[in-house]
DNA sequence: GAACCGATTTTGAACGATCAAATTCTGTGC
DNA sequence: GCACAGAATTTGATCGTTCAAAATCGGTTC
């Protein structure tokens, strides 16, 4: 296996200088047609590939984005994060960018990691996942002027001391609003909401969609809360439905809770009670439950636009006084008829 | 923000030469104690971080491993792959390695991607996921002498023309064997197996564990097959159980099928019929089903050992005539009692 | 005290690309 | 035919690190 060819080799083969080869690669429009063709032929013939490290060293750009792969769902469910990272990798590749993973157990550790990677010139930007109230990471990144975009809204307590940062997220309220309207139009007016305990940004956002749709329609329905647990959801729903049999449908904050609710309804002899979940997981599909599907692919596209501009091929530094840019993706309601009941 | 310090700056601050600083970083043992301390102090004081690109350029090593993140489960289920990639990132980091993602829709495209990354000096090695019969990727990697390890066995058709490659995998047969023995010991002797259609390496491997355990015990039980679908599993199991009510327990090739089987049994008024799944997904946990848990963290550790040796901090090139090294991780049976029935 | 050896440290060169500035073309106007 | 402007191309320097070889240091030996 011969040594890999360099710009110099290509230049020699094409009878031009190093820099012209470089220009053909990076600014083709300033090279005259015949020259460009000769160089391109030489590139193909020699099988030349630019050496990334040399380019990085000279340009001080790594064309790489860092992402932390969550070990456990931290606000963003496993499948959603998976699809997001995959889409991000794919679209980043189309724009000449790479995605580098890093691991961290705590926000502090994550900051250390990012510091290493940024100072070492390994990444140009970061995509944060699972943002929370008073996130220490965002402040640090802003102070260090590291370009970043968060997947998830800044659930800030409205102090406004810090300038907002760029983010992309799924419009949870729009999802539950659509789900609620669907049930109002097809099942009846008494639609319940089964959510997480208040306080989580994501959960409250989804609850809001139900609230608004109910208010718009002048309808009323009970609101139940429980932890993210199929078993708990089942017990809670069974009790609540027994007490309040007039419920015509249930909008749930997640598929797990929806499955719990569905099992409870089935157990009470009401397998046809419409239940809508959130995330459109394979389990919901298998049981024939309707669900709100997030579209992480679109979030990924939004993240890249925020990071690189609508068409750019390099990370853009945005100044703090820029408008807080964001992208809010509207999810899609997947309507299904429940499979034949168990009991 | 001042320019980042270089080895030169550190050298000046510590009153030594560039190379000595480099030695402190890469071969501390050849530097005299007092000198080393002085240099280390200067590193800390200046907040020096080596510039990765420069190092890569000089050493021709990127200390980076490429991994393709599957969009959909291709033989390896989503959660398992997730945990695997996460563990890989974490352990690679401990060894001074990074994990770079790449996207590809087809094996051919994947080969192109890997070619770009390897020739560009962006990655030193590749971890393949979802290997299949007659995998075109492995041959290409071997020809190009790109170090790689597969997560998943080479399900080769025994031609032996190609030297085997390194791989790490979960011992599916051991998992179903344990599950079968558990049911034989606690439920009865007529244990059924619910698997995928024969022909998939993974599925056949898991079936083998059941077969062997049954043969060892001199027991007999029916063997059913269906696609990976909860709904199909439920229908099939319902029909089969109605016809063959003597079944004492069911070992399943996946959690989805196990849940289908459990729902079928519950529907027939036998909610307590022991069913064991595979993958230990949250759904199985929620329903209180026993399941075989893969340990992708151990697979990740095995992959790194195969790639870098038991303690090394750089990728080791192995020659084709080396023994085909592999790591087979024994999964763990998680025993649960089913939650109270639905019907 | 000179010669010598191994351990430690320093110096010069190189990795392969792009930037910035200098140079050479090309075509136009008079 | 000559000066000139803009386009196209080339040249020299540089990014920050490590390799390879040369130089220096410290301690023994005779």
Considering the chains and any ligands shown, give keywords for the structure.
homodimer; DNA-binding; 12 strands; transcription cis-regulatory region binding (chains A, B); 6-stranded mixed beta sheet; 343 residues; Rossmann fold
Q: What is the number of strand segments of chain A?
A: 12
Q: What is the CATH architecture term of the largest domain in chain A?
A: 3-Layer(aba) Sandwich
Determine and state the CATH class of the largest domain in chain A. Answer: Alpha Beta
Oligomer: homodimer
Offer a quick outline of the entry:
With 343 residues, chain A is of the alpha/beta class.
Describe the fold and architecture.
2 copies of one chain form a homodimer. The first copy, chain A, is of the alpha/beta class. Chain A folds into 2 domains: 64-170 and 297-330, Rossmann fold, CATH 3.40.50.2300; 172-294, Response regulator (Rossmann fold), CATH 3.40.50. The first copy, chain A, has helices at residues 7-14, 18-26, 33-46, 52-59, 78-94, 107-119, 136-143, 172-186, 201-217, 230-243, 255-267, 282-287, 296-308; strands at residues 64-68, 98-102, 125-129, 148-151, 167-170, 191-195, 223-225, 249-252, 275-278, 290-293, 326-329, 332-334. Chain A has a 6-stranded parallel β-sheet with strand order 2-1-3-4-5-11, with helices on both faces. In chain A, strands 7-6-8-9-10-12 form a 6-stranded mixed β-sheet, sandwiched between helices. In chain A, helix 7 (136-143) links the parallel strand 3 and strand 4. In chain A, helix 1 crosses helix 2. The longest helix of chain A has 17 residues, at 78-94. At the A-B interface, helix 4, helix 5, strand 2, helix 6 and helix 11 of A face helix 4, helix 5, strand 2, helix 6 and helix 11 of B. The structure holds a DNA duplex (30 and 30 nucleotides). Chains A, B: It comes from Promicromonospora citrea.
């Amino acid at each position: 296996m011969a040594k890999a060819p360099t710009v110099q080799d290509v230049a020699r083969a094409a009878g031009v200088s190093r820099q012209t080869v470089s220009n053909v690669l990076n600014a083709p429009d300033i090279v005259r047609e015949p020259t460009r063709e000769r160089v391109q032929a030489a590139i193909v013939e020699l099988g030349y590939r630019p050496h990334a490290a040399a380019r990085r060293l000279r340009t001080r750009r790594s064309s790489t984005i860092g992402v932390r792969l969550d070990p456990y769902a931290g606000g963003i469910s496993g499948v959603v994060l998976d699809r997001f990272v995959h889409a991000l990798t794919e679209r980043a590749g189309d724009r000449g960018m790479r995605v580098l993973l890093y691991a961290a157990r705590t926000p502090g550790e994550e900051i250390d990691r990012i510091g290493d990677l940024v100072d070492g010139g390994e990444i140009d930007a970061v995509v944060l996942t699972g943002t929370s109230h008073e996130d220490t990471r965002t402040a640090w990144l802003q102070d260090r002027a590291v370009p970043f975009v968060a997947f998830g809204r800044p659930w800030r307590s409205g102090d406004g001391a810090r300038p907002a940062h760029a983010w992309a997220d799924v419009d949870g309220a729009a999802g539950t609003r659509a789900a609620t309207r669907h049930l109002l139009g097809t099942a009846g007016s008494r639609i319940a909401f089964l959510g997480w305990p208040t306080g989580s940004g994501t959960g409250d956002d989804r609850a809001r969609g139900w609230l608004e749709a109910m208010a718009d329609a002048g309808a009323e329905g009970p609101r139940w809360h429980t932890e993210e647990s199929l078993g708990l959801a089942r017990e809670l729903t069974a009790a609540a439905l027994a007490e309040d049999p007039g419920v015509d449908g249930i909008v749930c904050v997640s598929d797990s809770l929806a499955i719990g609710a569905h099992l409870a309804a089935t157990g009470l002899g009401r397998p046809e009670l419409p239940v809508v979940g959130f995330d459109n997981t394979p389990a919901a599909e298998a049981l024939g439950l309707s669900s709100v599907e997030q579209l992480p692919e679109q979030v990924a596209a939004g993240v890249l636009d925020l990071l690189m501009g609508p068409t750019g091929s390099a990370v853009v530094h945005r100044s703090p006084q820029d408008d807080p840019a964001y992208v809010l993706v509207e999810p899609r309601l997947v309507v299904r008829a429940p499979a034949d009941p168990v009991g």
